[in-house]
Amino acid sequence: MSSLDISQKSFRLTRFHLLWLRQQPNFPDGSEAVYQQLLTAYNEPHRVYHNLSHIEHCLTIFDKVSDLMDNPDSVELAIWFHDVIYTLGDKKNEQLSADLFMTLTDGLFNNEFRDNVYQHIMATCHNCLPITNRDTKLMVDIDLSSFGLPWADFIHDSENVRAEMSYMPDSEYYDKQKCFQLSLLSQSSFYNSDYFQQHYESQARSNLKHFFAIMGN
To answer: Model-level pTM?
Structure first.
C-alpha cells in the first residue's frame, strides 16, 4: 500500500470520527467500530459502482456545496449510510440502510437530527416525489451528480453500474435503466437544487441524449 493510500485512509477515518463526535460528545466514542462496519459493507465483492469510490465521489461533491446547507452534518452522515445495505435487485436497500443508521444512533444522537438523516437517505430511492427540504434536495442531487459529469466519467460510471447488474440480460437492464432515466428527465428539472441545475443540468441532459442515441433508443 502506498503512502498516499495510507494517508487517504487516515484522513477518511479522522473525518468520520470528527463527524460522529460532533453529534454525540457526551458518550464513549464508537466511531471507529461504525466506520469499520461501513468500510466492510462498501468493500463487498458484488459492488462495482455502489462502493467506497461512490461515497468518496459524493463527499467530494458535498464539500463543494456544504455551505448551502442548513445542517451539513446530517447530509454527510446520509452520504455515508445511504448505500450501506446493498443487495442486488432489492428494492428495500435504502429502507434497510436508513434503518441501520437509526439503530446505530438510537440513544446517541438528537432525534430530530436522526430523523433528518433518515429523510435524506430515504430520498435516494429517487421516486420523483416532491422534495421541500433544502438539504434533502442537495443530498439527492449529490447522489445523482454522476449523470452531470463529463461524458467520459459518465460512461465509466454507467459501465460500472452495468457490471454490477451483470446478472440481468441486456434487454431487461437497459429497459429498466431507460425507465428510471426518463423519469428523471420528465421532471421540470433533472436536479432539485439551484446549484446543480446551474452546474450539472445541461451536461446530464446531454449525456443521456447521447447515451440513448448510442443505445438506439
So the answer is: 0.94
